[in-house]
User: Fold this.
Amino acid sequence: MNHRILLALLLLPTSLFCQTFTESNLPIVVINTEGVPIPDEPKIPGTMKIIDNGQGQLNHPDDPGNIYDGGIGIEIRGSYSASLPQKPYAIETRDAQQNELDVSLFGWPEESDYVLLANYNDKVFMRNVLAFYLSNEMGHYASRTRFCEVVVNGQYNGIYVFGEKIKRDKGRVNIAKLDPDEILGEPLTGGYIFKCDYWTTSDSWQSPYHPIDHPDFNVRFVYYVPKPEDIVAQQKSYIKDYVSAYEKALYSDKFDDPDLGYRPYVNTNSFIDYFIVNELARNNDGFKKSYYFFKDRDGIDKRINSGPVWDFDWAWKNIDECPIFAATDGSGWAYKVNDCWPDNNSPGWQVRLLQDTAYANETRCRWDYLRQDVLNTDSLHVWIDNNVALLQDAQARHYLRWPILGLNVGTPVIGPIPTTWEGEIADFKHWIDLRLAWLDANIPGNCWTTSVSAPTTEYPIIFPNPASDYCFVEWPNHLISSLPVLFNINGDRVVIPSQINSGTVKLILDGIPQGFYLVKLTDNVGEIQWLKISVIR
Assistant:
């Protein structure tokens, strides 16, 4: 087809692609703003109902909302994705007075802030969902999601991913709440969420350090929690100084010393797993934007954690961005994105971390372990096939609404563009297979020589917390001499399966009732610690 014809097709009013939408096996989200166009910001009032009649049952747009039926505030969200025809949205559930209203959707923990991620830039619909799933399986919080079909002001809008917005909350990023009047002592030390992302001078600070491989690059960090408009001067100074102290240690001559270097400042497990998920996806954005970090109060966990993972619509494919991301043989390191002269500079921390032999060895060990489990090739294919079956009927409607199969729209992709969804799925699997093979051969480190002193921190930690199916227990500077023991609130021992890998204990919780439990830890010299875990259903 002539390119001018294609362009004209894409510029036609979207109303020409309207269709009758009567039923779906996916949840249906119906949004109504009484015809008022949804702006980029601020949020405008509207209503939303979510219909999900359960597994094996069909949902209809005129069914009553049984997951939610009430008020919302809604706006267009995102940066590049907001420029595409299928708009992504940020949603806040509200009461009749337009106040935030915490609700539990799909059985998730109660909250008020959610997202509808569009799929115009993801023809397999799974790029974000797969990354979130993998991070969750590795033991970290990532946004809970559900595929759904969406109707906005009476118009069918295709397949979306309904998910949780990244937020400080006991059911999301579970760190202490930091109020504006907490400006001294222990309360001042957490909790914070900050990120690398597009910035302004009023919502960010500039690091006094520069990426080790690009000393001419400046790096800025964006305040996220507390929000830029809420964070006070003392809190700004604290988190800036703490990150600067970490960077000073990271770039010092003794950076790989377990006590004098970077290790007391960071949860290396979180950094390694973040690295693995984003490198598996060869995520163009993963180390330069939507790059989140969080820090709790010192008395809980004084280390900087990497994550949650976010923003994978430019990932899992070969894109016309720079040689790193254009390679068609599965090669290339996403963490070296500064070599591409990006639109937002990466701090480049991974470059320095991987110069520590012990850290590189830990990374190799973690990769090898995950390849036997959650990153097993067959397991990934089964996960994809299960979602193909789930989306089979809806994808046909989606591509009637957005007839873009065979067209190079959204992220500029290199190579032939499949003309069918089945072709897109085949390409997706093939891309993952190539990437796995390249990473198998190129992940740094040697697992059999791993030897590292643990970071200096006296506090055992348990995460995620609250948990549902499983949680992980770490006691970084102690050797756990026996498996943790779980007790209910009546003091009765609860027998559950446990697994140990590299000093981290995984507790399987899917067979016990919802409630609060105590975990007893004993180290190799008999010291005992107790942790509290909340199990949710």
About this structure: Residues 1-17, 449-457 have pLDDT under 50 and may be disordered. The two ends are 52 Å apart (CA to CA).
